[in-house]
Amino acid sequence: MKSYLPVDFIVERDESKCIRCKVCVNQCTYETHNYDAQDDVIRSKDENCVNCQRCVTMCPTHALSIKKNLGPFRDNANWSSEVIKDIKKQAETGGVLLTGMGADKPYLTYWERLLLNASQVTNPSIDPLREPMEIRTYLGAKPDALEIEFEDGDIDLKTKLAPQLILETPIMFSAMSYGAISLNVHESLARAAMRAGTYFNTGEGGLDSRLYKYGERAIVQVASGRFGVHSSYLNAGAAIEIKIGQGAKPGIGGHLPGEKVTEDIARTRMIPVGTDALSPAPQHDIYSIEDLRQLIYALKEATNYSKPVSVKIAAVHNVAAIASGIVRAGADIIALDGVRGSTGAAPKVIRDNVGIPIELAIASVDQRLRDEGIRNKASIVAAGGFRSSGDIVKAIALGADAVYVATAALIALGCTVCQKCYTGKCPWGIATSDPWISKRVNPEIGAERLVNLLRGWSMEIKEIMGGMGINAIESLRGNRLHLRGVNMTDTELKILGVKMAGE
Amino acid sequence: MKRIIAKQEHCMGCGLCEVGCAVQHSKSKDPIKAYNHEYPKPISRIRLELNKPVSFAIQCRHCENAPCVVACLTGAMTRDEETGFVKHNPEKCMGCWTCIMVCPYGAIKADVSGKIVAKCDACTELSVPVCVASCPNGALECKEVTS
């Protein structure tokens, strides 16, 4: 069948700059560039290009640039090029359109419509470079009251505290499974979490035994496929996370194709080499809050009540009520993943249409738990497309205790958000299990870049807090008076619990 | 003494070390001029070995008991006792290729002229050898070693 699909991108090569070094040829995993020895020229197949910018970045003479193919369709607000191409693709394949990363549409974001406060005249702002600024965050259940005993001038805490995660910055790395991402990326995240005093999340694919040494900074995930879950795995981590859902694909399971299941991944996931790793859509032992409680306590028993248990859900319509149930089921942490949450592979229609924005989910869950007097029983971790320290500060002001970042972390490692993670051929060596391509991430360089990002964001958070006249992140959490909204309806403002700018 | 160490676990086979080396040893030191306008083309003294997923870039190892120094008929190959680097003097080289044959690493090549040999000079005029500086993934490291 003749393909009616036009190319997405056009590779432009400045022949006067090209030195035929073939770096572009060997760096493109989609075989876009080919060297013709007879003519001593490199030619590019535009149809293979995904605009990942790998060749552009690596070209030593900057001879390459990638242009978006603006033609050939006529402009149409309803029948955009993307829509037309998607229909043509499905007409040719009859399949579900797959995509990677988070929703790429602009209409699902509220951060731009939320603005932060700063101190002027009536209360002093603080200079974080001169005065202490506390952003250490504790995640886990907090007691209803503290019982303190005074004896001979000694102060003794009688209340037994629940296990806590201690974060030096309120930013953690979200779940990305070994198999979806390479071992080198897992190791970069693990080393960065160790150095920055935060946590990385193993995702649902288990933790390779070579990374157990970073266990004290790992949140080990238990998902519907139960891949790689065993006693030493649960006990290797600092906390356990039950994954119910994911923001990019709420209600959808996972599928790691057999060709990605290499020997190392098979050993870690405890499945045969080359078999498809299928994660069911639901956890088949959890059909109710009571069932969830059983799993939470089974995991607490398995780890001798020494680790907090987190439950991760996708932010969906009834998120506040569900979150209340999760807290009552005994979770110490609730992780909420918004509609812009990212993934290695998801049906495009699900990614772009299912779920609710994380901003609304944080606000409604925080408010519901406060109204019910159980906010202290669990920490809220927000996830789903945090792009900057500004987004993070706004999330904390809305009521989150900490945030998970994944896309930003991958961008720090080289990702250009080309959305082709599902092909397993990531030219940046990130979303792949190919031992050759995954060498492109050096865990040492990766860890350094991640630590730099966390350091930069942490300093910015302190700057913003200082401007507000706040010197501890505890005072910012759920402090919606520091937020104002613009371009929003009364209902939106009400759900977010913020006033209109100018009020 | 300083040595260039190849780390195969981080080498991704891009070949930028070869480009950097060839340009550094060109007349113009400009990649576009060196590759497109210099004749004969400058050659790289580092070579990428590739057998996926294994790859590494190798240049003269500056051996302690260098076979090329022993074999050289004219004394063009010498070992600098201070730095430990094996140096090649083009003035003395007569292009007999004996060193090419004895080098256990295949690290010596015929130079662009085809009349003398070329090998890694460890970029002693630079603070960091150009291959190390060109590697985007830390697969080449220049560090002090004891022997």
Features:
A: 503 residues; alpha/beta; Alpha-Beta Plaits; 2 domains; 8-stranded parallel β-sheet; 14 helices; 23 strands; 28% helix; 17% strand; globular; B: 147 residues; alpha+beta; two-stranded antiparallel ribbon; 5 helices; 8 strands
Count of all domains of chain A: 2
Distance between the termini of chain B: 8 Å
Task: Round the mean pLDDT of chain A to the nearest integer and report it.
Answer: 96
Top-tier CATH class of the largest domain in chain A: Alpha Beta
The total of beta strands of chain A comes to 23
Shape estimate of chain A: globular
Q: How much of the polypeptide of chain A forms β-strand, as a percent range?
A: 15-25%
Show the largest interface.
A-B, 21 and 24 residues
Report the span from N to C terminus of chain A. Answer: 61 Å
> Largest beta sheet of chain A: what is the strand line-up?
11-21-20-18-17-14-13-12
The class by helix and strand makeup of chain A works out as alpha/beta
Number of strands of chain B: 8
Can you tell me about this structure?
- The complex is a heterodimer of chains A (503) and B (147).
- In chain A, helix 4 (183-196) crosses helix 13, helix 8 crosses helix 10 and helix 11 packs across helix 13 (443-468).
- The N and C termini of chain A lie far apart (61 Å).
- By secondary structure, chain A is of the alpha/beta class.
- Chain A has two domains: 9-95, Alpha-Beta Plaits; 137-142 and 168-476, TIM Barrel (Alpha-Beta Barrel).
- Chain A contains 14 helices and 23 strands.
- Chain B is 20% helix and 20% strand.
- The longest helix of chain B has 9 residues, at 16-24.
- The radius of gyration of chain B is 15 Å and the shape is globular.
- With 147 residues, chain B is α+β, with helices and mostly antiparallel strands.
- The mean pLDDT of chain B is 94.
- In chain B, a hairpin with a 2-residue loop joins strand 2 (47-51) and strand 3.
- At the A-B interface, helix 1 of A face helix 1 and helix 2 of B.
